[in-house]
Amino acid sequence: KELIYTESDLIVTPIIDNPKIIKQVPLRFDPKTLHIPAHSVEKLLSMRDVDWNNFLKRVCSLLDSSEKNTGAARSKLNLLYYLCTLVVHKEIANRLISSQLFPILIQQLRAATNWDIRANVARVIGLLALHTSELGENVPVSEAITLLTELIRENFRNSKLKQCFLPALGELLYLIASKEEKGEHPRECWAVPSAAYTVLMRCLREGVRLFHG
Description:
By secondary structure, the chain is mostly helical. The chain has helices at residues 41-45, 49-63, 70-86, 90-97, 101-111, 115-131, 141-154, 159-181, 194-212.
């Protein structure tokens, strides 16, 4: 065992926002243009259920807005930056991944015409997957994996877009694997399409080829 493994092989490190993989620009949101109160994590966790539900409903409504002008896109991006600062906290991630927000994030990933919005939606999804410790069997993880796989396949020659979607896909796959290893839910709950493995292997092959090239 000492010959086969090194200690670093047994340490799990984040895939998303890992500076050893790719250096991310720190996200900063503007509370003045957020259109909702920029509550702190402590404030959100101390809220009564009715206040939390109203807050969440407002977030979902803003994300689900069909307005397509520049101002609306900027507001949506600002909201996504704010969400990125929230979901790195385990308690918030646990609440949000099982809420109505997750299906709306998937819908935005599918329908948004602005690629910055799509990239940051993927970032929120990846951070949610990384920081959550609870995953209900009704969370549509398989749908998110399928969509991310399609986006990577459709934009395979665009390395910038691939770097946006691959970390989120990796975090979702690791989340499912870790939950199934603990036997928390039957395997059918979070079926992983074979296309996801195919795309990942293709990315790995291309990456190795570029490295040696």
